[in-house]
Design brief:
The complex is a heterodimer of chains A (210) and B (144). With 210 residues, chain A is mainly α. Chain A has seven helices and two strands, in the order ααββααααα. Chain A has a two-stranded antiparallel sheet with strand order 1-2. In chain B, strand 6 and strand 7 (97-101) form a beta hairpin. The chains are: A mainly alpha (210), B alpha+beta (144).
C-alpha cells in the first residue's frame, strides 16, 4: 500500500508530488489552534497503526484509517497523512521519499471524498455512514495505487496473476475489515463525543475544542 | 470540554496500544536485501518472510548488469564474485523495492517499538501543548 522508492517512473512521481503539494497547501490553509490537538493525535494514530502489516499472499496489507481520518479531520486529513508518511519514510523506509507525493495523494484524496460522503449518509445511519466511508476510502486508495503503477509501467497488468489482480484480491478483506472498524469507531464517537464528527446540526456544547 | 480532553487523550493512547499489542507480529512490510555471505544475498520482508516474488538484478561498480533472476527456495540469490563491489536491486513488483551495496550494514538507530513510542509521545505533547494554549486563551476571554 505504500509505494517504495524506484517503483514509479519519474514523471508520475513528479506529477504526484505537485498534486500532493497543492493538496497539503489547501489542507494547511486557515488551520486554527483549536484544531491542532486533534490533527496531531490523528497523525500519531495513523503513523503507528499503518506500520502494522498483515501478510496476505505475496504481499502485505495494513490498516490505513483513510475513512476515519477523513471523517474526523475533513480538509485537514491530507496534512495528517503527509506528516505521518514523511515520518514513516524517514524512520522506517516504509514507503519511499521519492514516492511521498504519490502516497500522500493515494490516501488524502479518498479521505476528502469520504468526508463529504459521510456527512450525507450519516443522517440515515451513523454506523452505515462510517462503514461505507471506511470501505470506500480503501477502494479509492487502491484505484489510485493501481493507476500510479499502470502509468509508470504497463507490464503491471500482464497475466492472470498480475500485480493488479493480486493487489485487488489482497485488499478486498481490508475493505471489509476497515469498513466495519470505521463504522464501529464512528458510532462510538457519535455516542460519546458527537462534536468530534463535525456533524452539522449537532450543537457543540460547553465550548469543546476537540 | 477541556475536562474531557484528558479522558479522551488517555483512551486514545490506550486504544492505540491495544491495537498494537493485539496485532502481533508487528512489522513494517519493507523489503530488505541482506548479505548471507560473500556472493550470496537473501531478500526478505521485515519479520523474516522470504520475498518469493522478488526479481533480483546485480550491477557491478560501473553499472553493468552481471546477474539477474529469482530467489532459490531458501530465499537466496547468488552472483559472481569476480566483479568487485556490486549493487543489488530487488523488486517484488508490488511496490516494494530494496537495494544493497557491498559494505552496507543494516543497523537501526533504535529498536522499532521505542521509535514508534517516541513519535507518538511527540504527537501527544503537541496536542497537549496546543490544548493548553487554547484553554488559556479561553480563560482569558472569560476573565474580561
Amino acid at each position: 500500500m505504500h509505494l517504495a522508492d524506484g517503483v514509479l517512473s519519474l514523471p508520475v512521481a513528479a506529477a504526484a508530488f505537485a498534486g500532493a503539494g497543492v493538496l497539503v497547501a489547501y489542507s494547511l490553509k486557515g488551520v486554527q489552534e483549536e484544531e491542532i490537538p486533534m490533527i496531531s493525535l490523528m497523525t500519531g494514530g495513523f503513523f503507528a497503526l499503518s506500520l502494522i502489516s498483515i501478510p496476505v499472499g505475496p504481499s502485505t496489507i495494513h490498516p490505513v484509517l483513510g475513512g476515519l481520518l477523513g471523517i474526523i479531520l475533513g480538509r485537514r486529513a491530507p496534512l495528517a497523512f503527509f506528516v505521518g508518511l514523511l515520518l514513516q519514510a524517514i524512520l522506517f523506509q516504509h514507503g519511499g521519499l521519492s514516492t511521498l507525493g504519490a502516497n500522500t495523494l493515494m490516501l488524502a484524496l479518498p479521505a476528502l471524498v469520504v468526508h463529504k460522503m459521510f456527512q450525507s449518509i450519516q443522517k440515515r445511519s451513523v454506523f452505515l455512514g462510517g462503514a461505507l466511508s471506511g470501505g470506500v476510502a480503501i477502494a479509492g486508495t487502491l484505484v489510485l495505487l493501481i493507476s500510479f503503477l499502470l502509468l509508470s509501467d504497463q507490464r503491471f497488468a500482464d497475466g492472470f496473476f498480475s500485480v493488479v489482480n493480486l493487489l485487488i484480491a489482497g485488499h478486498l478483506p481490508l475493505i471489509l475489515v476497515e469498513g466495519l472498524i470505521t463504522g464501529y469507531a464512528v458510532k462510538f464517537l457519535y455516542n460519546s463525543r458527537p462534536s468530534m464528527l463535525k456533524i452539522p446540526g449537532v450543537s457543540v456544547t460547553n465550548n469543546s475544542s476537540i | 470540554m477541556h475536562k474531557g480532553f484528558k479522558r479522551f487523550l488517555i483512551s486514545f493512547l490506550l486504544t492505540t496500544l491495544m491495537v498494537f499489542l493485539l496485532s502481533a507480529p508487528v512489522y513494517a512490510h519493507r523489503m530488505i536485501v541482506e548479505q548471507v555471505e560473500e556472493g550470496i544475498v537473501k531478500v526478505i520482508y521485515d519479520g523474516g518472510r522470504i520475498a518469493r516474488r522478488a526479481e533480483v538484478v546485480v550491477y557491478d561498480d560501473i553499472g553493468i548488469e552481471i546477474a539477474k533472476g529469482s530467489l532459490d527456495e531458501n530465499g537466496h540469490f547468488q552472483y559472481p564474485l569476480d566483479r568487485g563491489d556490486v549493487l543489488v536491486v530487488a523488486d517484488d513488483g508490488l511496490g516494494h523495492r530494496a537495494e544493497w551495496k557491498t559494505g552496507d550494514s543494516h543497523g537501526e538507530l533504535l529498536p522499532r517499538a521505542v521509535t514508534i513510542a517516541l513519535v507518538l509521545l511527540g504527537f501527544v505533547a503537541v496536542a497537549v501543548f496546543f490544548n493548553n494554549r487554547v484553554k488559556k486563551k479561553e480563560d482569558a476571554r472569560k476573565q474580561l
